[in-house]
Design goal:
Layout: H1 2-12, H2 16-23, E1 44-46, E2 49-52, H3 57-75, H4 89-99, H5 127-133, H6 137-145, E3 156-158, H7 172-178, H8 180-193, H9 200-221, H10 227-245
Parallel strand pairs: 2-3
Antiparallel strand pairs: 1-2
Bound molecules: 2-acetamido-2-deoxy-beta-D-glucopyranose (NAG) (3 copies).
Subcellular location: Secreted
Organism: Mus musculus (Mouse)
Protein name: RIKEN cDNA 2310057J18 gene
């Protein structure tokens, strides 16, 4: 990781402040990690389907928690306690967005994310939340479709936001037609991960491809004011995790 670390720091430039905010905390986990579902059965169930509302912070975080849990065995050979799981960057970044108020309604038209009783609300008016949708729901659906969770994708129901429903996709077939390239890249990552012959550099490459692809559609559809920031921040956090444990 030493080689990666040096070019990442150059690329990342002055974005270290964001990381400091994350890593200064003595708790290495994202906010409310323990309150988020750690298995599918922690979600509400209806007609045999797990109901996930990605517009609730802990529900969205739960998808990451389950992904981390279900992929732990593939990273066990790189370090103890799932420390080397490359997917940690995603929940840490999402947690930072929550902590810094970026998931709240920036228009002030609703209480979403702004009032104490609405604090778990993830606003569809938050650019960060919209972009992150493609880095949470899409990888999760691709993972389910790749057999990572051992259930059929038809057993997952992703709830739409209160408005702008057309901006998002909600199940494997829907997302496969909306963002085929991104679904394929994430599926490639999860399938490669399950190969006996997979290695850390390969995983990193597949993850990078998938991550970049996840940003393509939403940054063109919702504006790409900080696409490069999003890239760099991801890498900084990733590097931070690596450096922390090596
Ligand atoms: C949430 O808090 C706001 C402001 O205190 C209040 O007006 C609103 O009725 C509360 N909503 C619920 C569902 O309790
Ligand atoms: C997937 O989502 C689309 C759009 O929301 C819907 O029309 C379709 O019935 C869903 N398919 C399944 C299998 O749930
Ligand atoms: C992968 O490795 C496991 C354990 O070493 C072995 O049992 C299994 O047959 C291997 N699978 C393939 C496809 O080589």
């Amino acid at each position: 990781m030493a080689v990666l670390a040096s070019w990442v720091w150059v690329l990342a430039g002055c974005f270290c402040a964001a990381v400091a905010e994350v890593s200064d905390s003595s708790d290495p986990y994202p906010p409310l990690w323990e309150d988020s579902p750690e298995q599918l059965s922690d979600y509400m169930m209806e007609d045999g389907n797990y109901i996930i509302n990605p517009w609730v912070y802990t529900d969205r975080m739960g998808m990451y928690r389950i992904l981390l849990e279900e992929t732990a065995m593939y990273f066990a050979k790189y370090g103890p306690e799932n420390e080397q799981n490359l997917l940690w960057g995603l929940p840490l970044q999402f947690g930072w967005q929550y902590q810094s108020g970026r998931l709240a309604d920036p228009t002030g038209m609703t209480d979403c994310g702004n009032e104490l009783n609405e604090s778990l609300c993830v606003s569809v008016d938050s650019w960060w939340a919209d972009i992150n949708y493609y880095l949470s729901v899409i990888p999760f659906l691709a993972a389910v479709d790749s057999g990572i969770t051992g259930i059929s994708p038809n057993q997952i129901t992703i709830l739409p936001p209160p408005k702008d429903q057309m901006r998002f996709c909600y199940n494997v077939s829907d997302c496969q037609s909306a963002v085929p390239g991104t679904m394929n890249r994430w599926r490639d990552f999860f399938q490669y991960m399950q190969l006996n012959s997979s290695d850390f550099d390969g995983l990193l490459n597949y993850l990078w491809e998938a991550h970049a692809s996840s940003l393509d559609y939403p940054t063109s559809a919702f504006g790409d004011r900080t696409k490069s920031w999003y890239h760099s921040n991801f890498l900084v956090i990733l590097t931070e995790i690596q450096d922390h444990y090596l």
